[in-house]
C-alpha cells in the first residue's frame, strides 16, 4: 500500500492579488481626499469675522460702558491728584512737628 500524496502547492498571496488586477473601491480614494478643494487662508479668516448680530451689539455696548467708566475714573484721578498731593504735604508737616517734641521729651523723662 502506497502513501497518499497530501502535499499542497504554495500559493503566494501577493502574487495572486496582483494577478486579479486592481481592486474596485466603492468610495473615494485617498488621492481624491488629498486633492479636494480647500478654502484659502483669507476665506478662513472671513468666516471667523462673521458672527451673530446680537453678540456684536453686546460687545459694542460693553465697549461704550467701559469707555464711560474709564472717563469717570480718569476724572477722579485728575481731580483727586491735586488734593491728595496737598494731603501728603500736610501729613509730612504733621509728622515733622509731632516727632520733634518726642525727641526732646525723652531725655527730660529720663532725667526725672
From TrEMBL:
Superkingdom, taxonomy of origin: Eukaryota
Biased composition annotated in UniProt, kind: Low complexity: 99-112
Skewed-composition ranges (Basic residues): 86-98
Chain positions covered by the region annotation Disordered: 70-112
InterPro entries, per the entry: Fam133 (IPR026766)
Similarity section: Belongs to the FAM133 family.
Name assigned to this protein: FAM133B
Lineage: Eukaryota, Metazoa, Chordata, Craniata, Vertebrata
Amino acid at each position: 500500500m502506497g502513501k497518499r500524496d497530501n502535499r499542497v502547492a504554495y500559493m503566494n498571496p501577493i502574487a495572486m492579488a496582483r494577478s486579479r488586477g486592481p481592486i474596485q473601491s466603492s468610495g473615494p480614494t485617498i488621492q481624491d481626499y488629498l486633492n479636494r478643494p480647500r478654502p484659502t487662508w483669507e476665506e478662513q479668516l472671513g468666516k471667523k469675522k462673521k458672527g451673530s448680530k446680537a453678540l456684536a451689539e453686546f460687545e459694542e455696548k460693553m465697549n461704550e460702558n467701559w469707555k464711560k467708566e474709564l472717563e469717570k475714573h480718569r476724572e477722579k484721578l485728575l481731580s483727586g491728584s491735586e488734593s491728595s498731593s496737598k494731603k501728603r504735604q500736610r501729613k509730612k508737616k504733621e509728622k515733622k512737628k509731632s516727632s520733634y517734641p518726642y525727641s526732646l521729651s525723652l531725655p527730660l523723662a529720663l532725667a526725672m
